[in-house]
Amino acid sequence: MSLVTPPGYYSLNEESVRAFLDGLPEIQARLGGKPADWTVVEVGDGNLNLVFLVDGPDGSVCVKQALPYVRAAGESWPLPLDRAFFEQAYYRAVAPVVGALVPAFYHYEPALYAIVMEKLAPHIILRRGLIEARRYPNVARDVGEFTAQATFATSDLGATIEEKAEWASTFAKNTSLLRITAEVVFTDPLGTSPRNRWTSPHLDDLAREFRADSALKTIVADWGWRFLTDGQALIHGDLHTGSVMVTETDTRVMDPEFAILGPIGFDVGAFIANLVMNFIAQPGHAKAGDERREAADWVLDQVPVYWNTFSSRFRALWETKASGDAYPPAMFGPADAAALDAARTRFLDRIFADAVAYAGVKTIRRILGFAHNADFERIADPATRAPLEAKAARLARQFLLEPGSFRTAEDIVAAARAV
Amino acid sequence: MSLVTPPGYYSLNEESVRAFLDGLPEIQARLGGKPADWTVVEVGDGNLNLVFLVDGPDGSVCVKQALPYVRAAGESWPLPLDRAFFEQAYYRAVAPVVGALVPAFYHYEPALYAIVMEKLAPHIILRRGLIEARRYPNVARDVGEFTAQATFATSDLGATIEEKAEWASTFAKNTSLLRITAEVVFTDPLGTSPRNRWTSPHLDDLAREFRADSALKTIVADWGWRFLTDGQALIHGDLHTGSVMVTETDTRVMDPEFAILGPIGFDVGAFIANLVMNFIAQPGHAKAGDERREAADWVLDQVPVYWNTFSSRFRALWETKASGDAYPPAMFGPADAAALDAARTRFLDRIFADAVAYAGVKTIRRILGFAHNADFERIADPATRAPLEAKAARLARQFLLEPGSFRTAEDIVAAARAV
């Protein structure tokens, strides 16, 4: 890979983004006034992109442009630009069923690998809100609803063979980000990648112990195989609390550039893992007079809210909107109702089991791998942070090595409290 | 779908195939002489294609052309021509690793949807040989070797994410034949499709009983979901004994137009099911002085030969040629050898379990669905045929409802004898 970019591509800045938007009549009309009247702020705090918020007299937009390298690693980790294509393709695929649970999509500019979409305000990133002990009464239900709607509609339960084949063919090409997930989530954390880091020396022993645990490593590899092969639905691919923006009343899922056809439990497990990590990290953010006990309890309680919303919505969609080629209605009559209901329960139990395992994988990578979580990173004192990270890692190992202990979302809650 | 064919397409006949081949210098050179010197015979006995065998003074070729409808159903079941593209794409993908276990590929003519390849002689179709009680000492080992090499090389164990993505993107478009498999293998046989047929009235009760078995139907649907989602490797997709041509010493796998990214066990189970059905059918072909007992025993003994060859070759390839992104060598060191070995055993046990279930699905569809097997169909007397078909159907139900009873290939042998 190289940093040579395709003809017509240039990195936008706060000036050139005005000229770009000025050339899009619909966007210009949305903003109102002249480019000189617009305020432009670059706010990208992610790893991979530039993000501009643009306000005009009549309205606002957000411009997200892919960079040809992983921003956090500097230019030493080049990265193809086409992930912006997959991001907008995902928004287009799921928008019909998830509605305002994603930002409104306005325009995609192929040459610039830039998406123009709704500017979310006064939303903040859910992870930041949770770290600040804020509560969002709708968020677990909203993300559960999002996960159910998006995965059902793009699975063989909600889509025909021909519809799913279009997504399969398109998203199969999202290999750059698939490789990143395969490497930084599954391969590196228990291997010996120079990209790995951990709170050292506090967790040196834990890192050594995990990397010497042959059984754990092969189980993670089993789930890596499943991740690479199990094309159940179009999944978001990076559904952590940093990919969700919130207000007290509104929830939006964003940053779907890792979208692939994959296991539904990978999205479910990612969200659960990030709630659980925030719960475990809460004592690290305690201040005099605020032990963070209630905040922690609230976050952990969102795990069953999320799972129960997901699973009941997914089941309801299956009961009322089955229009795919799996479990085809033509096979079943009224006499099969009880058996089909049992099949749905089996199906959702398997998704739950997958989610528990992927939650384990996704947690370990945040403690021992390349990309860490602000939930832990914002705990400045490593002597406070390390034991909390160790708790998360031990729970993750339970998720992977004791799958029989996790049958319900309440089992996750109990184990997270006990760890 | 319609029978309007694309510009440039015409159905070949014994005359026009000469003109077509005359325009291909390499083929002309291979055949030698002039088109008028060539003998041409159309031998297609399949459902979907024309097949010409062409002999010249210096050599021979086979021309296989896709027809725009399912031949056995007449023009009432139209079918896109592009399956010829997928057939040649499959040959090209696996040829580097399976060598002469497939026919040599010479030319693909996109406008005609025609493949020019090696003419196999004096090969006959394996199914026909087995029905005639012939023995092929190499065939189970050869097809086991074929299955292992082709699936390993195109899985995430033998291919990189980028290589597999090319196949995923290409073969995702093979929706016409995927839909046929989904419908005629999984949906129709236990449903109420007008395409279904069975030996009637002898098996009317059995058909009714199976179609009233809600548990069986949901289990078949579970495996239908797995078939549609589980993209483990590029699979042949129709690996029965009618897709294998043999002599006493040579084995060739052909007709891979159903190729998709799918579960490895679907290929393995298809071949096992067709051996087992031939075993069960043998008494129906008995004549005075030939009870077919030895022939039947020989066929059934090929089940463990096939599975053991497949599994030991697959394991050996994994041990020596792992070059994919699943179970990446970078994760494992010498201290992990025993755990990795156990993971390989788990992995192959899962493929076996998948194969047993798909063998069940594939057997039921040959008794109650659209396309039946010559193994049973050649038994002219329905009163002789029906009880043998019923045995096969009952064994298939065991495969699906009692998975715990089938841990080894020998368990299949024992159950097939006992049924």
- Low-pLDDT segments of chain A: none
Domain unit count of chain A: 2
- Supply the CATH architecture of the largest domain in chain A: Alpha-Beta Complex
Radius of gyration of chain A: 22 Å
| Main sheet record of chain A | 5 strands, antiparallel
Strand order of the largest sheet of chain A: 1-2-3-5-4
Chain oligomer state: homodimer
Give the integer mean of the pLDDT values of chain A: 96
CATH topology of the largest domain in chain A: Aminoglycoside 3'-phosphotransferase, Chain: A, domain 2
CATH class of the largest domain in chain A, named: Alpha Beta
Number of extended strands of chain A: 10
The gist of it:
The structure is a homodimer of 419-residue chains. By secondary structure, the first copy, chain A, is α+β, with helices and mostly antiparallel strands.
How is this fold's topology laid out?
The structure is a homodimer of 419-residue chains.
Chain A: H1 16-22, H2 25-31, E1 39-42, E2 49-55, E3 60-66, H3 83-98, E4 105-109, E5 114-117, E6 124-125, H4 126-131, H5 139-153, H6 161-171, H7 175-187, H8 204-211, H9 214-229, E7 233-235, E8 244-246, E9 251-253, E10 260-262, H10 264-281, H11 293-321, H12 337-368, H13 374-377, H14 382-401, H15 409-418
Antiparallel strand pairs in A: 1-2, 2-3, 3-5, 4-5, 6-8, 7-10, 8-9
Helix pairs in contact in A: 3-5, 5-11, 7-9, 10-11, 10-12, 10-14, 11-15, 12-14
Explained architecture:
Two copies of one chain form a homodimer. The two termini of chain A are 43 Å apart. Chain A has two domains: 102 residues, Phosphorylase Kinase, domain 1 (2-Layer Sandwich), CATH 3.30.200.20; 295 residues, Aminoglycoside 3'-phosphotransferase, Chain: A, domain 2. In chain A, the strands form three sheets. Chain A has a five-stranded antiparallel sheet with strand order 1-2-3-5-4. The longest helix of chain A is centred in the last third of the chain and has 32 residues. The model of chain A has no long low-confidence stretch (mean pLDDT 96). Chain A is α+β, with helices and mostly antiparallel strands and 419 residues long. Chain A is globular and about 60 Å long. At the A-B interface, α6, α7, α9 and α12 of A face α6, α7, α9 and α12 of B. Chains A, B: Its EC number is 2.7.1.100. Chains A, B: It is an enzyme of class 2 (transferase).
